[in-house]
Specification:
Length: 304
């Protein structure tokens, strides 16, 4: 959760405000649910003390979304109105006033995280139509976000195979590594799946327009498993937030767990250092994905 920060409800912020209403939240550090006025803007949920408040109290970024499922435990009124939102770095409990409201929140959250309209919810035709619009609006927002970034450098025709072969870039904060691609989270997953023989890690824009993210893929028992790490941009470099985890089972994430069991922040001067950090601290298991120029020029032709 981010610390309080002013959020002006101006025309620009309302453009991608997809849904808002009362929402109760309980994080791992909370003893009970806390009621907020919540607004889903882009792929971030902003929590306000009330519906008229200009400043948000907390925000929940969905860039590391994993799942959103019903919590079958019932509230004091015997209503099944609870949900469990699982992100890569934490799990949050949510509660609303009615079953109908729960289905709406689930619909909007799944629409912006998966970029598709969910088909297993109890929604009216008009609500499904609105979710279709939201998917298109979110794709537009992500497109504008990626188009505002500097172009990717020409990729190498040979993938890196170990920490010693990570491609070097100029020592400036604005230099982009060759494994940087202007893709969304879902596009990054497709990219890693289709080119698993060339690498298993890419750098991409973060989904909330606040920096960059690292996306990785490793097969666990034959099934691709994706992880996403947000890299925060600061004045003189970048911060990798290594959060304490309890469910890492594969070898290279266990390596992170052993070295950072309490969680810590890693500072890097450049994005190239960010890439090298992931390669070195997984003993070369993570390999930056490099593709030939012809393929990169057609990267936006993916369909999902």
């Amino acid at each position: 959760m981010a610390s309080p920060s002013p959020l002006k409800r101006n025309k620009a912020s309302q453009q991608y405000c997809y849904y808002e209403g009362f929402l109760e939240k309980r994080s791992p550090e909370d003893k009970d649910f806390i009621k907020y006025w919540a607004a889903l803007r882009g792929n971030t949920i902003f929590f306000h003390s009330n519906g008229r408040s200009i400043e948000y109290v907390e925000k929940l970024e969905l860039d590391m979304f994993q799942s959103l499922v019903d919590d079958n435990s019932k509230d004091a009124n015997q209503k099944n109105v609870r949900m469990t939102l699982k992100l890569q770095n934490k799990t949050v409990k949510l509660k609303v006033a009615s079953f109908e409201t729960k289905e709406l929140w689930k619909g909007f959250i799944l629409a912006v995280t998966k970029l598709e309209v969910p088909t297993n919810l109890a929604l009216l035709p008009g609500q499904i139509h609105r979710l279709t619009e939201v998917v298109n609006e979110e794709k537009e927002r992500l497109s504008k976000l990626t188009s505002s970034l500097p172009p990717s450098p020409t990729p190498s025709s040979k993938p890196a195979t170990s920490k010693k072969t990570v491609t070097q870039s100029k020592d400036t904060n604005t230099s982009l590594p060759q494994c940087f691609y202007r893709v969304s989270r879902l596009e990054a997953e497709a990219l890693l799946e289709r080119h698993a023989n060339q690498g298993n890690m890419v750098l991409r824009p973060a989904g909330d327009n606040s920096g960059v993210a690292v996306s990785t893929c490793q097969k666990v028992k034959g099934t691709p498993e994706y992880k996403h790490y947000k890299i925060r941009t600061i004045t003189n470099g970048y911060i990798i937030d290594i959060e304490p985890q309890t469910d890492w089972t594969d070898s290279w994430f266990c390596c992170f767990k052993q070295r950072n069991s309490r969680g810590r922040k890693v500072f890097c001067k450049t994005l190239q250092e960010v890439v090298e950090y992931f390669v070195v601290n997984t003993n070369g298991t993570l390999v930056p994905l490099f593709m030939d120029t012809e393929y990169e020029n057609n990267i936006y032709r993916f369909t999902f």
